[in-house]
């Protein structure tokens, strides 16, 4: 049942984002920012954790999960370090994921021949 919930909830998130891209004049970058901010807001309102327990990877893999990760990092850093945690918490919490994305992207560029769009 965990796989089923992850599949349909993650698919629903992706479908809603696709509808938003197709039906509005919002650019993809702005939609991604909305998703990250939405995940942080849902985390701050304590709505995201029960949602993630239900959906599993269907909720944590999309950009909503990244926003929630940033929120949790900032909240934890503020509790430990005070006001400076606002600036350091999000980076500390997401450093491993960001580093992995950069390293694997670089390795893929070495293996395959990247081309510029015309």
TrEMBL record:
InterPro entries: SpoVA. The keyword Thylakoid does not apply. The keyword Membrane applies. PANTHER family: STAGE V SPORULATION PROTEIN AC-RELATED (PTHR38450), STAGE V SPORULATION PROTEIN AEB (PTHR38450:SF2). It holds the Pfam family SpoVAC_SpoVAEB. The chain crosses the membrane at residues 6-24, 31-48, 83-112. It comes from Merdimonas faecis. This is SpoVA/SpoVAEb family sporulation membrane protein. Keywords: Membrane, Transmembrane, Transmembrane helix.
């Amino acid at each position: 049942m965990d796989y089923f919930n992850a599949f349909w909830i993650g698919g629903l998130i992706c479908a809603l984002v696709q509808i938003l891209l197709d039906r509005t004049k919002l650019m993809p970058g702005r939609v991604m920012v909305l998703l990250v901010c939405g995940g942080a807001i849902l985390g701050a309102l304590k709505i995201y954790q029960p949602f993630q327990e239900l959906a599993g990877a269907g909720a944590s893999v999309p950009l909503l999960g990244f926003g929630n990760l940033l929120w949790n990092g900032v909240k934890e850093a503020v509790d430990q370090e005070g006001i400076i945690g606002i600036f350091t918490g999000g980076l500390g919490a997401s450093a491993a994921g960001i580093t992995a994305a950069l390293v694997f992207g670089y390795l893929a560029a070495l293996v395959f021949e990247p081309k510029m769009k015309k």
